[in-house]
Amino acid sequence: MALLGNLALVAVFAWVVRGLLGARELTWRRMVAAVLVGFTVGATLAGLVLVDVSRLGEPGVDPGELTPPARELFAFALPLQVVATMVVVVAFELLFARPPRSRTLRPARPLRALRRRMRIGLRAVAVSRIAARHGLAPLLGLKRGEVSSRDPAELARGVRVALEDAGGMFVKLGQLLATRPDLLPSEALAELGRLHAAARPLSRVEVEAAIAAEIGDLGGVFAEIDWEPLGSASIAQAHAGRLHDGREVVVKIRRPGLEEVVERDLAIVLWLARLAERRTVWGRAYEVTGLAGEFAEALRAELDFRREGRAAAEIATATAAHPRVRVPEVVEVYTTERVLVMQRLHGPTLSAALGRDQLPANARELADDLCASQVVAMLAGQRFHGDPHPGNVLLGSDGALGLIDFGVTGRLDAFERASMFQMLLAIKLEQPTLLYEALVAVGAVGPSHPPEEIERALAQYMAANIGPGLPPAEALTELLRLTTRLGIRLPSQAATMFRALATLAGTLETLSPGYPLIEQVADLGGEELRERMAPGSVGEFVQHEWAQLGPLLRRAPRHLDRIATQLEHGGLTTRVRLFADAADVGVIERLLNRGVLAILSLGVGFLSVLMLGTDAGPDLAGTDVRLLEVFGWFGLFAGTVLLLRVLLDALRTETRAR
């Protein structure tokens, strides 16, 4: 019974302390552990104060004589235990506080959570060792110092080898980075483009089990399947097959158990990104935590083959008017989250055909069709291929081009399309202010660079990249890199469009050297872009603008006269609304609340100490305890609680900010 009573006392005390301090992030097990630690520490301190330890070794001294009565020890230890418990609770609250995690990273069972954390920890140690072995630890903020290589090509080669050694989703990270000309120089893009995953090919038994689990009996669906894979990557494996109706198809199977591997590696990627952003200059400049979040979102979306199937079907609709550009038909009835069945297109990729010098005679016509199919889709708000590099474009035996791999696609809304037209117009007219306004309209500008500095950088960009006529295709890539350096975050679809255009420029250059991509964009832009950019539309443009600005200009002299009159007679006043933003009000309120509570806690503590040191005042009935002494101890306890609440709130906010 005594044990049950003690346990009940600990539970009640934990509940009281949790409410007094506002410690809402601790679990009940950790809360009870904090109470037990606090009780132990308080009792130990009381024993050290009341027991004369120095006399324990003296001869003839009974240790029991040195121990004070239990009631006296309990009365002295209780306040120490209370204060020690609250201090431990504050420490535990800060120690075990964690940022909110996505649902996919939150296991439901404690043992499974422990095993997952151990696997993540072991994997993180292995990845850190790989980075250190290749001299990349300072680059990631794992240790202080300089990166071992300052040559961009050598550094990119080290990154590629490190990603290959790490394997798993780190290879996929490098492959996605190879599609980001806005972030990396050409040397790094070329090096990362050589990444290949050393993935173990799935056995026939594994493939059969994976397909059967998704679409049922294989014999009832496929007439035959070639069990020798067409390709095996870190996410999926592809096999050739034939349906009973004679259609040749490609069966893409997601690797079994991939979700756990993805979430494990993504947790490490996000950890490394936060570390690099906190400890390195380049990490803060590029806001790598946000980039890592974008990568995680894109990778999770790529795991669902149904999304890839829908994207392929939408691109097929968008390119239907271009018969020399083909998109494989998706067999939707057999496509699931883990299995994708689509038409098989025959032929080498453009990169393979270029290596064998097998480009067709009508390469310019094919380039025109490929350019038109993608640019028209962009301008019309339809789905377009987000990564049309030469490895994703097949050269068919019938003379047509085929698009494959629809893991990265994009689609612009009406607002983004209008901003794109304005950006092209600003580049054509060499107007940095107009270009800045277009970027601000479609993106978010960070506080690190003032508008004047951004406009100056845009003017320098135009002077360096734009000459007579329309700008070259490389100017788009340079503009993307400039926006990243200036802290302008474009929406994901707009950034995908610019990256797709930059990648498309390289593919078109492969088909037809010197291909005029920007001129084709201007020609395909339709009547709207031609009216904006053609000299003959100046009169219409002036008339349109005058219709909006004319009434304002006619009223302007009267308004100026009124302002001058009020200024002359001293009637011109101004009014400034301080703290009009609710966020600013909230910050000020929190600071004032902390300040008031801190002053109140210190004042209560000071008065309590005065009352404890005063001999005046009545005694409690039947005791020799003074009433002011009771008030002093109670006030000292209240002041301690208030001070710890202020301290916990301030430290918790600082921890979350980091």
Are there runs of 5+ residues with pLDDT below 50, and where? 99-108
What oligomeric state do these chains adopt?
single chain
Radius of gyration over all CA atoms, rounded: 35 Å
Cα end-to-end separation: 47 Å
What structural category arises from helix and sheet content? Answer: alpha+beta
How many structural domains does the protein architecture include? 5
- What portion of the residues fall into strands of 2 or more residues? 5-15%
Number of strands: 12
The best one-word shape is: extended
Structure annotation, total helices: 26
The biggest beta sheet reads: 5 strands, antiparallel
How confident is the prediction overall: mean pLDDT? 77
Classify the helix fraction into a percent range: 55-70%
